[in-house]
Specification:
This protein has 412 residues and is mostly helical.
Length: 412
């Protein structure tokens, strides 16, 4: 009984650490702004890792091998290119988002506690973001605002649709608030992610509700969408005008209005230069015969940090071989996901929501080397059995090994 209580307590701690790591930028923001340095942020990240290692005292061999293999990719790349510093900077980002993301995900086994902590921390995050809202409006950091608001929205949505505790009505209100702020102040990809998440929940809920209720929801949704499509331009123009009158400039809404006014051409003209980036990247790939260019080559040769598309970036880094490898990875992880989600509904929803976020973002923005949920999802699926099936052949228990060494010394 005591051992079971200890395991439950450990599961809750790992869930909290996972969420705190995810919201680290927002949680540490007040202190970072006061002291004018990111030192506190890095101390916070390091503390989470050290504490996690201390309470779990487990090292997974597969995790070590994955980390070493990916680290070797960076090191080898850095040795043979003139832009070594850029590659090493990428590696530092990968350690933070990739290696640590996989590590913290590897420790998760209680998805109910994960969702609850995500919801609670999302409230704190939403509060902090609104306190510093003025720092984001009218600056390039509006994208970070959209990302962090989406993190909070995801936590609220899990509590409302999945956990369904007695405070779920509050979660619904917070979902609406965060969604409105994403639409007005955030980036367009975040708004798209939120809409996809809404659609996902409604689709999976159709199977669980009465057929009449399901049909009614579909009819209401269809009528609402048709109304928005037919009147979207007028609605957005009115909204933008009203916001401008009270001194609020919405870059995202303005982009939507210009896109609609330009028609089909607007998708290209209002893509913030992505059309030119895609053409540039395509020419590089074709001219090289789909061979690898290496990490950091695109940024070094163009001055653009990343090509704003997962498959294009992988093809630039590793050539056609990398794209094939990525597709194989997706297939393997998807098969594992289908297997595990049959008996774990919370795991199913959590991974699906995080996939919607990461895949949508990586189709239009960001880089997979620095996309946290991309790596966390790999960790959650790859190491699901590590915590949920009692697999022991991959576990290396620091405490037990230390005790065995002591006993061996005594025998000698």
């Amino acid at each position: 009984m005591i051992e079971k209580h200890k395991n439950v307590n450990l599961d809750y701690k790992n869930s909290l650490i996972f969420v705190l790591f995810m919201f680290a930028n927002v949680i540490t923001m007040p202190v970072v702004k006061v002291i004018g340095s990111t030192v506190f942020f890095w101390i916070f990240i390091a503390s989470l890792f050290i504490y996690s290692v201390y309470i779990n005292r487990l090292i997974n061999i597969k995790f070590i091998l994955i980390s070493l293999a990916l680290s070797i990719v960076f090191i080898v790349n850095a040795l043979f290119v003139p832009y070594t510093t850029k590659v090493l900077d990428m590696y530092m980002l990968f350690i933070r988002f990739g290696i640590l993301g996989i590590y913290f995900a590897m420790m998760i086994s209680n998805y109910e506690s994960l969702m609850k902590y995500w919801n609670y921390t999302g409230i704190i995050g939403l509060l902090i973001l609104n306190i510093y809202l003025g720092d984001y409006i009218g600056t390039i950091e509006y994208m970070d605002l959209g990302i962090n608001l989406t993190y909070s929205f995801m936590g609220f949505s899990m509590n409302y649709y999945v956990i369904k505790d007695k405070y779920r009505f509050i979660s619904l209100i917070l979902m609406i608030v965060s969604f409105i702020e994403i639409v007005i102040f955030g980036n367009r990809s975040s708004m798209l992610i939120v809409l996809f998440i809404f659609a996902y929940y409604e689709i999976i809920n159709l199977k669980k509700t009465n057929i009449l209720i399901s049909i009614s929801k579909l009819i209401i949704a269809f009528v609402s969408i048709m109304y928005l499509v037919l009147n979207l331009n007028d609605i957005l123009i009115t909204l933008v005008d009203k916001l401008n009158k009270i001194g609020i400039n919405s870059y995202s809404l303005t982009k939507h209005v210009l896109t609609l006014q330009d028609g089909l051409k607007g998708i290209i003209t209002q893509s913030s230069g992505r059309d030119d980036i895609y053409i540039l990247a395509k020419n590089m790939i074709v001219n090289s015969g789909f061979m690898p260019h290496g990490l950091g080559y695109f940024e070094d040769s163009t001055g653009i940090i990343y090509p704003h598309n997962l498959f294009i970036e992988v093809c630039l880094d590793f050539g056609i071989f990398g794209v094939i490898g990525l597709i194989i990875l997706f297939i393997v992880l998807f098969k594992k996901y289908i297997k595990y989600c049959k008996h774990d509904e919370l795991f199913k929803v959590c991974v699906a929501i995080m996939f919607i976020y990461s895949f949508t973002r990586l189709m239009f923005s960001s880089s997979y080397w620095r996309e946290l949920f991309f790596w966390m999802n790999i960790g959650l699926v790859t190491f699901y059995q590590f915590n949920n099936k009692g697999v022991t052949n991959d576990k290396f228990n620091i405490t037990n090994t230390r005790n065995k060494i002591k006993r061996n010394k005594k025998i000698i």
